[in-house]
Amino acid sequence: IVTALDNLDEPFMLLGHSMGAMLVYYMEAKLRNMDYNLKKIILCACQSPNYWIDYIADIENMTDDEFFDYVASLGGIPEELTDNMFFKDIYTNIIKNDFMLIKKHVPNISVVQTPIVFINGTDDKLVGDRWKFWKLFIKSKHNFYEVKSNHFLIKKNDVICSILNREVLV
Question: How much of the chain is helix, strand and coil, in % rounded to 5?
């Protein structure tokens, strides 16, 4: 993404959900240090870096069926696909590999200096209340929002769009 930004002065924001929010967190310092005009970052369904180690269930010891059920319990698989064997066969390993990347990641913790917005689901079994510990890692203006949802709150289009519209206009 950095190479696609030709104009350092052009203001922009970054939004990341779950693993994508972890990536946005790391990009914030790099982009700020490169003098890009990053106005705000928006992190959805992401707990603070001090909880990134071992917050995911013991998935390496789960069968594929157990893992699939675990992800479904978090709200990550649409109900109409939970019994679809074709979907299950293709995507279980892909999703499991993403979870393993997060599970094995050791965070390089830095303090966020760009204004930041946090959005979390009230029923997020994966993140829970641990997302509130972000206050330890920010030195900037920030807003916290809770949405009636599970970990996959990004699917709440109307609510998320309303929050984003409010934040973009600030």
Answer: 50, 15, 35
Cβ atoms of 74 and 152 within 8 Å: the answer is yes
102 and 22 Cβ atoms separated by less than 8 Å? yes
3-class secondary-structure state, position 127: coil
What predicted TM-score, i.e. pTM, was given to this entire model?
0.78
Nearest to residue 115, comparing CAs of 18, 32, 22? 32
The beta-strand segments (E) located in the chain are 12-17, 38-44, 116-121, 142-147
Query: Could you tell me which of 50, 39, 45 has the C-alpha nearest to residue 140?
Result: 39
**What's the first-to-final CA gap in the chain, in angstroms?**
24
1 — pLDDT class (breaks 50, 70, 90): very low
